[in-house]
DNA sequence: ACATTTATGTCAGCCATGTTGACTTTTTTC
DNA sequence: GAAAAAAGTCAACATGGCTGACATAAATGT
């Protein structure tokens, strides 16, 4: 409440730019560089939160990302994960193998389509993923509290608007779907070792909609 | 103005959380996971902007970061860069050598302390750095415009608040110092091949204050 | 004057995580 | 039964972190 001194570096907001919008008038000399750098420093701190834990078990950020999204989308296919992470099958395969071998992720053949490997977290994996979410949520919560009551929606809107327009829809759907599933799970049965009830993703039919980006 | 559909995934704001703040009541089941993920997707897009250009000249993101901060702090020392980037001398040395060899960065011995190598961008380097700033500023400007007139300060405050408390001061000072220098430069002489007037960093004496973090 | 510290650079090697390309197996779909 | 899809694998390579060990030049302290 008394630590934020943002205006220390900001020029007088909008009037009197000193230099009259040099060469083009769009995004060159304007003080948006500060936001570029704040984004860099903020994200670096943000991702460094889980690093300590990860290092203790010989994992890296790639493992974190996989754990996170499998946690959010229990029963997801490998292809779904590839669509979200946008890395190659080989890169994913490396970390996924370690996570399965060490008992953090459970990979079972799909019931309806036995080519698929449906990914679930083991209790061990869930505990770890929950640790990460808790850590990073603390940081976000603290930040939002310092920014006042309305900051949450503004921050959300800002982050969404920073995403490529063609990705926004899929990303928001992805988040919405995960939220719905989590809600259904907690309001339903006591919720452990969830049955693959009704095709855990997509749920529209045999071919669940891609989580992110239909094609590249 | 009509494209943002943030509320598609958000539960009814604050009341009726569905699950009554399970196990601890702080940052576990609360819908802050969406912000975690939005931050991930937003930052991925954000850093991918310059990638296309970088790939064309055989550079990577490490080169981008070096170019950016040398651009913002002309005449900075190698140590300053290390403090900001928080990587090892060896890692920095690799990309710095390439940037100097290929004529993007000029590395001159300091006048008062000839051990120092003061880093400046060449015109070629400046042009490239400016390209990156323009690209990323476009994204930010677009995002802020979509979020309304007050979003800029909120976004700034949010990003600052996401930074580790002990880093905020140094980071804000860093940004303020760069802004001041840029201002002085544009308002001063016609502004080319700037003289090392008055010790380009710190300016308090022989030992300029560290840009970020006095001690690792 | 000499010892120490500081700023920088460099060699060598390792690790994590991304990439491409080629190929296999299993299963589903047409 | 052919083609396509889901997954996995091997090999090789690139980027960009890391550690450890040194080397050199210049400033600083005694």
TrEMBL record, chains A, B:
GO molecular function, a single term: DNA binding
Chain ranges of the HTH marR-type domain: 29-164
Keywords per UniProt: DNA-binding, Transcription, Transcription regulation
An annotated GO BP: response to stress
UniProt-listed Pfam families: MarR_2
Xref: PROSITE patterns: HTH_MARR_1, HTH_MARR_2
Gene3D superfamilies in alphabetical order: Winged helix-like DNA-binding domain superfamily/Winged helix DNA-binding domain (1.10.10.10)
Biased composition (Low complexity): 186-198
Statement: the UniProt record of this protein carries the keyword Transcription regulation: yes
Cross-referenced InterPro entries: HTH_MarR-typ (IPR000835), MarR/SlyA-like (IPR039422), Tscrpt_reg_MarR-type_CS (IPR023187), WH-like_DNA-bd_sf (IPR036388), WH_DNA-bd_sf (IPR036390)
Region (Disordered) location: 1-25, 170-216
Biased composition (Polar residues): 1-10
Comp. bias (Basic and acidic residues): 170-182
PANTHER family recorded: TRANSCRIPTIONAL REGULATOR, MARR FAMILY (PTHR33164), TRANSCRIPTIONAL REGULATORY PROTEIN (PTHR33164:SF44)
Protein name: DNA-binding MarR family transcriptional regulator
Organism of origin: Ancylobacter tetraedralis
């Amino acid at each position: 409440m008394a630590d934020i001194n943002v205006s220390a570096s900001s020029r007088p907001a909008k009037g009197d730019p000193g230099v009259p919008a040099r060469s083009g008038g769009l995004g060159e000399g304007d003080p948006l560089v500060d936001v570029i750098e704040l984004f860099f420093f903020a994200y670096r701190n943000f991702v460094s939160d889980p690093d300590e834990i990860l290092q203790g078990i010989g994992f890296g950020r790639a493992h974190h990302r996989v754990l996170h999204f499998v946690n959010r989308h229990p029963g997801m296919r490998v292809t779904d994960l590839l669509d979200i992470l946008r890395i190659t099958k080989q890169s994913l395969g490396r970390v996924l193998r370690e996570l399965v071998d060490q008992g953090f992720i459970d990979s079972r053949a799909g019931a309806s389509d036995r080519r698929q490997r449906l990914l679930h977290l083991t209790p061990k994996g869930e505990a770890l993923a929950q640790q990460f979410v808790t850590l990073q949520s603390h940081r976000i919560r603290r930040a939002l509290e310092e920014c006042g009551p309305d900051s949450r929606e503004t921050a959300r809107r800002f982050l969404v608007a920073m995403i490529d327009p063609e990705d926004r829809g899929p990303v928001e759907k992805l988040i919405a779907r995960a939220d719905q599933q989590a809600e259904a799970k907690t309001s339903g049965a006591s919720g452990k070792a969830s049955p693959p009830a009704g095709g855990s993703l997509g749920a529209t039919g045999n071919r669940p909609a891609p989580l992110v980006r239909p094609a590249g």
